[in-house]
Amino acid sequence: MSDSHRLHPLLPNLDDALVSKMLQKAGAATVDDLFSDIPYELRLKRRLKLPDGASEYDVRRDVQGRLGQNKTPPGSLCFLGGGVWPHYVPAAVESIASRQEFYTSYTPYQAEVSQGMLQALFEYQSLMCDLLGMDACNSSLYDWASAAGEAVRMAGRVTGRRKALLVGNTAIQRRSVVKTYAEPMGMRLETVGFDPKTGTLDQDDLKRKLSGDVACLYVENPNFFGVIEEGIAEAIESVHEAGGIAIVGVDPISLSLVKEPGAYGADVVVGEGQPLGIAMNYGGPHLGIFAVKDIKMARSMPGRLIGLTTAVSDPSRKAFAMVLQAREQHIRREAATSNVCTNQSLMAVAAASYLSLLGKEGFRRLGEAVISNSHYAAKRLSQVKGATSPHFRGAFFKEFVVSYPRAKAQSVFRRLSKDGILAGYPMDRAFRLGSEAGLYCVTEVHNRDDIEKLAEGLERAV
User: Fold this and answer.
1) pLDDT score of 109
2) pLDDT digits over 113-172, tens only?
3) Please, which pLDDT band fits residue 101 given cuts at 50, 70 and 90?
4) Within 10 Å of residue 16's Cβ, how many Cβ atoms?
5) Res. 341 pLDDT band, cuts 50 70 90
């Protein structure tokens, strides 16, 4: 018997005879045949480098040693953003989200889901609609990127058009996900430029590229550079005049001070709910925000909508129910236009708890602390020789770009990391900023001492 098929009391299907029988049933000659849809050049052409079995104690000690090599806050100062941001998560939010009634629900899309979970999701939808200035919000999607991809697909279905415009100051990763979602349905993506001085979208370039085949414009506010798109209302008006849909991506924390998207004409709002009481968690699970202004568009919206009704037995009693999930695979089978099966709705519960606990006044004070700290940091870093801070002239919230005329962004990032400072996310060359640069994020968790350590570390790094 080969080493790969040793008998094991907990892995009975490693037996060669059973493997052969299963392959025969599947109509395959070898195990490799089961992976024939994966291009050969992408396959691993050697066995996995796994050590021999060890005791539970030895395995635990090894894993703990590996985890100890991670540089994570608060052990390391974190000034990284770009889609996952360091914010404080109140203990009360963690306590509510960790209640068994919520965290054992797995993926609450079944009709028999509990009234408690349905009410929590209804509250999430209501709070997000108030925050975004929209009429309907689902509950919810995976993350910002998948929500943006679903929004562009929806715009193509609703308008019947097959061209989508994306502003060039959008995160590279989100642009890639949108491409993955949209191109299979025949949509073409075209980039709208941005002003190299302010970092905001180029209105003239947008008007040149608007035409009768444009389904939508996707624009982020604040954009990936952290810059606030002050001319976004004008851009959306131009899109509407061309018969297209305006999709706005947001960091919800910015709405503590920045006007809500519904107030300046957004048709669809997507974003990342991670700042609303969800830990960074090595990049997930996160919370994809998706809301629409026109309630008629809700039937084209992916995900589920929770509604409020009354009990049949007692009309005076409130009852919550799943009222719409028209696009999903368990409803429409192969005709489904989205897949939100294992959506982490527990994250929506955390966001609803976070917003409820802060309230309107607390949320505003949070935004004031974020913008105060981030602008102080940008000013302090402007005093560092060899750094230009901020790189763009546009007004910014929470994040800002720092450029390095004489240093490489990757080198700066690595040197800061060696000092125990996670900062200066290297900007992709696709942005064509004219110089090496890094993205910095400063929130309510940072104090003056933290910012001073960042400045001192940057002085050594550049």
Assistant:
1) 55
2) 788 888 999 999 999 999 999 999 998 899 999 999 999 999 999 999 999 999 999 999
3) confident
4) 13
5) low
CA triple 313-319-323, angle to 5 deg: 115
Residues 6+ apart with CB under 8 A from 69: none
**Dist CA 53 CA 65 (whole Å):** 17
| Closest to 214 measured CA to CA, from 167, 160, 169 | 160
In three-state secondary structure terms, 65 is helix
Decide if 141 contacts 288 (C-beta within 8 A). Answer: yes
Domains of the chain: 3-50 (no CATH), 77-87+362-461 (3.90.1150.10), 91-355 (3.40.640.10)
Token pair for residue 460?
């050594």
Higher pLDDT, 305 or 341: 305
Q: Which pair of structure tokens corresponds to residue 435? A: 């110089």
End-to-end CA distance of the chain: 58
DSSP H or E segment with residue 56: helix 56-67
Average pLDDT (380-406) is 96
> What 8-state DSSP symbol labels residue 233?
H
Q: Which amino acid is at 234?
A: E
Residue 334: Cβ within 10 Å count: 5
Cα–Cα separations (whole angstroms), residue 91 to 99, 228, 312: 13, 31, 38
